[in-house]
Amino acid sequence: MKLATLVLGAMLSVAAAAASAEVIRHPIPNSTFPIAQAVTVTGNATTVYVSGQVPPVINKDADPSSVQAFGDTKTQTVGVLNRIKGILEGQGLGMGDVVKMQVFLVHNASAPMNFKAFMEGYTQFFGGSQPNLPARSVVGVAALANPGFLVEIEVIAVKETK
After folding, report:
1. Is the C-alpha dihedral spanning 132, 136, 140, 144 positive or negative?
2. CA nearest 126: which of 57, 91, 77?
3. Among candidates 152, 18, 32, 13, which has minimal Cα distance to 83?
4. What crossing angle do the helices spanning 115-122 and 73-90 adopt, rounded to 10°?
5. What pTM value is reported for the model?
6. Cα–Cα distance measured from residue 77 to residue 119, given in angstroms and rounded to the nearest whole number
7. Fold of the CATH domain 23-160
8. Is the dihedral of CA 90, 92, 97, 99 positive or negative?
9. What are phi and psi for residue 139, nearest 5 degrees?
């Protein structure tokens, strides 16, 4: 009987926690692409999952599927992290709230992974004046969705709910 009471109490606690959680999916503005720009999960903390972001075009005259359209690895890293920063700010968070980052860098015969250039861009946002460092993975991939992309980054950010 005592075990059944403990199990029922634990189940009710989990159900209460789940009932108080809310998942909000934020669509990509003006887009029908089938992914969320971000997902917010509330509870004792707000967690925002930002979908993989790719670099903005920096040269509109270049072939839109070329590296020249998006820049080198450092330029692309800064562009992607600025996009992420804007998305987080739209959710009331900042780069200091990022707790997990997954980075995809192209690494193939025509574009060897340039980790040094990635780090030059990354450290403009993490370390130094913004000391909150995320857990991070960097993965070399053969290609991304556009042949001009060298960098894609996704993050998870968390802000304590008061």
Report:
1. negative
2. 77
3. 152
4. 40
5. 0.80
6. 9
7. 60s Ribosomal Protein L30; Chain: A; (3.30.1330)
8. negative
9. -120, 135
What one-letter code names the amino acid at 122? Y
- Report strand pairing: 45-53 vs 151-160: antiparallel
DSSP 100: E
SS3 state at 154: strand
Rounded CA separation 157/159 (Å): 7
* Assigned token pair, 17: 């926690």
Query: CA 57, CA 71: separation in Å to the nearest integer?
Result: 8
Output the average pLDDT for the chain: 87
pLDDT mean over 132-146: 94
Do 38 and 91 contact (CB within 8 A), yes or no?
Answer: yes
